[in-house]
Structure formats: structure tokens, C-alpha cells
TrEMBL record:
This protein's name: HypC/HybG/HupF family hydrogenase formation chaperone
UniProt cross-references to InterPro entries, sorted A to Z: Hydrogenase_HupF/HypC
Entry-linked SUPFAM superfamilies: HupF/HypC-like (SSF159127)
Entry's family note: Belongs to the HupF/HypC family.
Organism listed in the record: Solirubrobacter ginsenosidimutans
Lineage per the UniProt record: Bacteria, Bacillati, Actinomycetota, Thermoleophilia, Solirubrobacterales
Amino acid sequence: MSCDSGHCITCGDDGVPMRVLRVRDDALALCEDADGAHHTVELALVDAGAGDQVLVHAGVALVTL
């Protein structure tokens, strides 16, 4: 397997900036990407709330932007 810069060498996925729309009680959030698509994202690693921008990889928010 070659290392392609810009992609995770494990899963081939990119980090995607998303806006948090709503945070649920179970540390999951409804987020929206730049194309307007909605995704369920785990927020366990970040302190983010509705309106915040997060960088998401493989369904997990890694950092607040």
C-alpha cells in the first residue's frame, strides 16, 4: 500500500470540515458538510456545540476549527 499524502493510509478517508447542527446526550452530533449533507458524528474527543466547526475523520470529530 502506498502512502498518498492527503489521505489516511488506513482507510483512504480525508478529514472533512463540518458544522455542528445539534448535539445529542450520547456524545453524538448531527453535523452538516459543505455540500449540505447531514452526518452523525462522534464528539467524544472535542468540546463542541451547535454552530461550531469541527474536522471529522471516519465519523469522529478530531478537533474544533
